[in-house]
Design a protein that fits this description.
By secondary structure, this protein is an all-alpha fold. The protein has one domain. The chain contains five helices and no strands. Helix 3 runs antiparallel to helix 4. The protein is globular, with a radius of gyration of 19 Å. The termini are far apart.
């Protein structure tokens, strides 16, 4: 279970970084149907691309922890789910977007429950281990504070 969670968290991180770089580099040309939107939308698209890149880096950071912090995974998955809810709201207000946006909406609504379930199972498995949850790699790698 832990291996699957780590793999999915890492894949999500790399996918988000790639998407963020793509949108940052191409601006409105990265979005189907946005080619004539203009400078304001291009500026916003590149800004959101940078934010999405950072979001992907947060997923990658989580995947590199041992154990994977379930609270962080739930928070990141919750943000992803909120994005899908935002797309549903847009669909209700403005109607059907480009078909690819519908595909993205399905992914954004379907994946978070998988992350919630896997992170809860991994958290429980770590708590059930003798001695509890092992320290994270980052905590173990930190030097001890200087003695007074």
């Amino acid at each position: 279970m832990a291996g699957l969670l780590r793999w999915l968290v890492l894949v999500m991180g790399y996918a988000c970084v790639a998407i963020g770089v793509f949108h940052f580099a191409l601006g409105i040309d990265s979005v189907p149907g946005e080619g004539s939107a203009g400078a304001t939308v291009d500026s916003r698209e590149r800004y959101y691309g940078a934010i999405f890149l950072g979001y992907g880096l947060a997923w990658i950071w989580a995947a590199r922890q041992s154990p994977i912090p379930a609270r962080v995974v739930r928070l990141l998955a919750g943000v992803f789910l909120l994005g899908g809810v935002g797309r549903l709201l847009s669909l209700a207000v403005y109607g059907q977007p480009h078909w690819f946006q519908i595909v993205l909406t399905v992914v954004e609504l379907a994946l978070p429950p998988v992350y919630f379930w896997l992170s809860a199972a991994d958290e429980k498995a770590n708590a059930d281990r003798p001695g509890g949850t092992p320290p994270s790699r980052t905590a173990a790698a930190r030097p001890a504070p200087p003695a007074n």
